[in-house]
Amino acid sequence: MTTVFEKTPMLTDTVLHYCPGCTHGVIHRLVAEVLEELNVGERTVGIAPVGCSVMAYNYFNCDFVQAAHGRAPAVATGVKRANPDSVVFTYQGDGDLAAIGTAETVHAAARGENITAIFVNNTIYGMTGGQMAPTTMPGQITQTSPYGRDIKAAGYPIRVCEMLATLDGTAYCERVAVDCVKNVRAAKKAIKKAFEMQLAGKGFTLVEVLSTCPTNWGLNPVESLGWLREKMMPYYPLGVYKE
Amino acid sequence: MSKRILIKGNEAIAEAAIASGCRHFFGYPITPQNELAAHMSRRLPKIGGCYLQAESEVAAINMVYGASAAGVRCMTSSSSPGISLKTEGLSYLAGCDLPAVVINVQRGGPGLGSIQPSQADYFQAVKGGGHGDYRMIVLAPNSVQEMYSHTCKAFDLADQYRLTVMILTDGFLGQMMEPMTVESGQLTVDSEKDWAVGGKRGKRIVNSLFLKPADLEKSNLERFERYKLVEESEPLHEGYMLDDAEIVVAAYGATSRITRNAIDEARSQGVKAGLLRPVTVWPFPKKAFAKAAEHARAFVSAEMSMGQMIEDVELAIRCRRPVLLCSRVGGMAPEPKQIFDAILQADKEAAR
Fold first, then answer.
1. What CATH superfamily is the domain A24-242?
2. I need a labelling partner for B341 at 20 to 30 A (CA). Which of A136, B6, B66, B168 fits?
3. Out of A63, A68, A80, closest to residue B88 by CB
4. B4-233 and B238-351 share one CATH topology?
5. Residue B189 has pLDDT above 70, yes or no
């Protein structure tokens, strides 16, 4: 028999705990494949957030440090400064990166910290049961915006790539999606570019991945992908914001 | 070889850290500890180290968390309001059994308080501060010389026991200049950090999440076995005219120096007073207090807080003797006369 496909050894055999239809699994694989292709797994340190991907340390086959909520970029800074030869990435959701950890994110970028942030934007706090996030769409119903996000009371969603692109320390940021094969391939290319730029010492790199949360959106996986395309993409346009 | 220099307390800590092999410092400006960070920012870049001014106290302690996870000796320093912000990181450091050295140059509180010296963060330092069951070794220097020697010791203890060691000092000691002997060869226990990430040594995880309650309990129990060792091996105290003292004044840090004057005055007037100075405030030198209670008729807790250490004194002597509080707060310091009066008052209470 010919082997036509193998799981990358940069992922462990641990069964993922993610909900059916969640795109974390796809994103994990893209990051893991990139680490394998760049042959940097042995010197990579991942920083796990608080949120659905808190247990990323069980899934990636590299060293990991689990960080307090929102602090992953600061923890990554400590790891990288202590050991500049290591390849350091954070894997963070929207609550972690764009709410409680906004200061850490912005300043890691402003310093041009030579790390890579994988930012998974699914417009909701998944782990805690679907609360309004900094990226929740206007009018979107969540557990804590039961009448839809009212921009008069709750303000507007944050566009992270656009915000970080204004900073000189940001070397590269791109928004991608994992809703279809074409976009998944583009997402992998972006993730690879981010790590390559880190290896070249270019500074802070971030890839924002538009992602789904069928469980907390109350949609099935296919409907979720449609919602991502119809609702999220117009507000969060895909593209390179800084390079 | 040793040399004698005149130096500020804050700078002595910085020099001691460097002498102990600390090359990574993460801080945020706050009075009255600024000289420490400034000294690090001057010195570290010249010796291949990393001085990084973080965007917040929270970020600084999390940088320490990351650097410690990567296996290097690292430090942050702050003053009271900043330490409150760092408590999140202190809890995570404890939960992951990571070594770190944290300096608190205390100022008056609560809230923004003042920038003057205080000892009102005692509870926060010795009882936890952050969430969960954890301890830090807390050293309380009372001279610039000790700011240096305690900091050297702190790095060794942190590595030995894999925990955070806090230097609990105050604006007096941070700001004052004193002659100090720089002792070479103070360092170090350079232990093999077989848990550190980032070195091609197989998959390593630094983590404090345990979803199974039994696993988390086990991790807590193992940690407390280590704390027990610390409590058995590391309590330090210093006595002054203690052996025959009938009135024992407990005082740490800057207050212990003021207390010595009051002890001298009491002795000159025929009152057998003595000083029992906790050098480690955690572990608290319980045995020394229990022993002192055998000959002491009463105790005084002299502190720049509204009665915090007094609780540990009462516990250590099992409330067998009266314990009076002698305190000034808000950036005010007790004068020797106030402590002397408290000694006389304690003498009277004991006779009652």
1. Thiamin diphosphate (ThDP)-binding fold, Pyr/PP domains (3.40.50.970)
2. B168
3. A68
4. yes
5. no
Nearest to A82 among B60, B71, B88 (CB): B71
DSSP calls for B47-58:
GT-EEEE-SSHH
| B69 neighbourhood in chain A, CB within 8 Å | 65, 75, 78-79
Residue ranges per structural domain of chain B: 4-233, 238-351
The parts of chain A modelled with pLDDT lower than 70 are none
B337 three-state secondary structure: helix
Nearest-CA distance from B36 to chain A in Å?
Answer: 19
Round to whole Å and give the CA distance between B90 and B168. Answer: 14
* DSSP symbols for B112-177: T--SSB--TTHHHHHS-SSSSS---EEE---SHHHHHHHHHHHHHHHHHHTSEEEEEEEHHHHH-E
H or E element at residue A242: strand A239-242
pLDDT of residue B184: 64
With the CA atoms of B34, B37, B42 and B48 taken in that order, what torsion angle do they form, in degrees rounded to the nearest 10? 180
Of A166, A172, A67, A162, the closest CA to residue A113 belongs to: A172
Beta bridge partners of B327: B303
Q: What is the pLDDT of residues A225-238, one digit of tens each?
A: 999 999 999 999 99
CA distance A240 to B289: 67
Kindly report the length of chain A: 243
Say yes or no for a CB contact (<8 Å) between A78 and B67: yes
What letter does residue A168 receive in the DSSP assignment?
T
Q: Say whether domain B238-351 belongs to CATH 3.40.50.920.
A: yes
Name the residue among A142, A166, A58 with its Cα closest to residue A94: A142
CATH superfamily of B4-233: Thiamin diphosphate (ThDP)-binding fold, Pyr/PP domains (3.40.50.970)
- CB nearest to A79's CB, from B92, B198, B200: B198
Indicate the average pLDDT of chain B: 96
Question: In terms of residues, how long is chain B?
Answer: 352
C-alpha span between A148 and A158 (Å, rounded): 17
In angstroms, the CA B201 to CA A166 distance is: 39
Q: E strands of B45-93, at which residues? A: 50-53, 74-78
User: In DSSP terms, which residues pair with B326 in a beta bridge?
Assistant: B302
Residues of B with CB under 8 A from a CB of A: 24, 26, 50, 52, 54-56, 58-60, 62-72, 74, 88-89, 92, 96, 197-200, 203-209
